[in-house]
Design brief:
Belongs to the binding-protein-dependent transport system permease family. CysTW subfamily. This is ABC transporter permease. It is a multi-pass membrane protein. Keywords: Cell membrane, Membrane, Transmembrane, Transmembrane helix, Transport. By secondary structure, the chain is mainly α. The protein folds into two domains: about 5-75, no CATH class; about 110-335, MetI-like fold (Orthogonal Bundle), CATH 1.10.3720.10. It is about 70% helix and about 0% strand. It has 17 helices and no strands. Helix 11 (about 230-240) packs antiparallel against helix 12. The chain is globular, with a radius of gyration of 25 Å.
Length: about 350
Amino acid sequence: MGATGGLTLVFGLPLAVALFFFALSAYERRMGLATGPGFFQRNGLAVGLYLVLAVGFWVFFVIVLPQFSMVDMSFRPKLPPSQMGGPKDVFTLENYRYFLFGSTTSTASWNWIHLKAFALTIGVSIAITLFNFALCYPIAFHMAQSAGAARLRILLLLMIIPYWVNEILRAFAFRVLLSSGGIINKLLLGAGLVAEPIDFLGADIGLYMGLSYAYLLMMVFPLYSAIESLDRNQIEAARDLGAPWWHIHLFVVMPHAKPGIASGCTLVFMLCAGALAAPLVLAGPRTLWFTPIVYDRFYQAFNWPQGAAYAFILLVTCIVFVLMVLKMFRLSLGEITR
């Protein structure tokens, strides 16, 4: 693409997005679909136009265009820069074949190392998502339905303040706590509960704890937001009718909080599956997480098409998980993004 084409794309696409919003707003007014003042009427022409152009520019150049470039690159062979765009630069499935079979030409054996790492990453991410839901649901319910204003502020501060520390520093803090000579092992040895230090890091307990702790807020806040909107009279009515506590949560609170549950689960799963710092710092010597493999494809093997293929496989898996969650909870994408 030449310089003229690039400038046309940079300035033309946001303008096209703005025109689309104008046309959509006019169509809704004409068809009587708008129930209140339109977007530009609420915000004013200048502010509304700025928001549309800024969001359109941001979404396209920061989200859509890099993803399309990654997908395109994943179907290209690894070539020196001088040969890119030449006759050898054709679409191919060799990068995906390598993920499955460990070779771009042979299919004699499976690439068990990478396949197991991928399966471990997805399986552990699902397990951590379920664990975080079980851990955060009581906290969110207490914050939304039981805690007073003062206690709620204290709880929010206690949860937010630790996240002022960088994620990598928190991962190293877990490593210090859980190492063979760490505080936890010293306490266990001093109390006579164990005869020798427990290898928490080698058993991946540190990794699971680090990932679970890193994304607690991503589960707590969607749950709190959903449960907080529940009318307390519904809970009181269920209690007056003699419903046990588990019945109230299962058939009154959770159905109302489905958007928050789905939102929290998708956020935690996608962040766990895409985590890089915690697996590098906390994973045991026999554990191979998938994201470091993707990183190595880019920056160790310098095989960007292969790294793009691996990243695209992970992206598709996360999208499938989101769609499955939406299907399971019978929700639309708009309901969990509110």
